[in-house]
Amino acid sequence: MSGQTLRDRPDEAQEAAVLVRLPPHLVVLFPGAERRVSLAASSVNEMVDALDALWPGMRERICDETPAIRRHINVFVDGRRAKLETKLRPGADVFVITAISGG
């Protein structure tokens, strides 16, 4: 059940859904993107794939070519910093946050 939205598989996805919250700076780059989206994914990597399926190009904004989460992006799952390999439990809260820097 990798990377599908609730709209694609309402019965099964409901059980495995995670709530992803995206930062406004990322959402504005993708017409029609939503700040909050429920997805069926069992890992952060599957979640990124699902976001990219909804809004092509989003993977490149979140991940680098190694692949890993970009340095200026942080992903938190249930309050803990996550990597692409991080597993997602059904009902997990996922925050994608852009880093703020200054000087």
Explain briefly what this protein structure is:
The chain has 103 residues and is of the alpha+beta class. The chain has a single domain, classed as Ubiquitin-like (UB roll) (Roll), CATH 3.10.20.
Describe the structure.
The chain has 103 residues and is an alpha+beta fold. It has a single domain (4-98), classed as Ubiquitin-like (UB roll). Helix content is 26%, strand content 24%. It has helices at 10-16, 24-27, 44-54, 58-62; strands at residues 4-5, 17-21, 36-40, 73-77, 80-81, 93-98. Strand 4 and strand 5 form a beta hairpin. It is globular.
The topology string of helices and strands comes to EHEHEHHEEE
**What structural category do the secondary elements indicate?**
alpha+beta
Question: Largest sheet, if any?
Answer: 6 strands, mixed
Give the strand line-up of the largest sheet. 1-3-2-6-4-5
At the fold tier of CATH, the topology name is Ubiquitin-like (UB roll)
Number of helices: 4
Q: Based on the coordinates given, report the CATH architecture.
A: Roll
Taking pLDDT < 50 over at least 5 consecutive residues as the criterion, the unreliable ranges are none
The general outline is: globular
